[in-house]
Design a protein that fits this description.
With 85 residues, the protein is an all-alpha fold. α2 runs parallel beside α4 and α3 runs antiparallel to α4. The model has no long low-confidence stretch (mean pLDDT 92).
Length: 85
């Protein structure tokens, strides 16, 4: 509240301890792996709106981006069962 949204201070505090750094890296690596999964799987079966789970991940986190992508993927597979081949 005193500093507002200060990204530099946020990262400084997050990575100031080993536990914090482990947590921060876990979140970053999880998001990067999700982006890779969205890009490869989304293009492979031609899922539309691939930008939506990326934005959801950046704004909320992996806990929103992954389920949203899996929903979009399943919707595509239900509409076109031959998309997996």
């Amino acid at each position: 509240m005193d500093h507002g949204l200060n990204i530099t201070l946020l990262y400084g505090e997050l990575f100031s301890t080993r536990i914090g750094a482990f947590f921060g890296l876990d979140v970053v690596v999880s998001a990067l792996v999700l982006f890779l999964f969205i890009a490869t799987e989304g293009r492979r079966i031609a899922v539309s709106l691939l930008w939506l789970p990326v934005i959801a991940t950046l704004l909320v986190g992996v806990s929103m981006g992954l389920p949203l992508f899996l929903f979009l993927r399943q919707r595509k597979l239900d509409a076109d069962p031959g998309a997996l081949t």
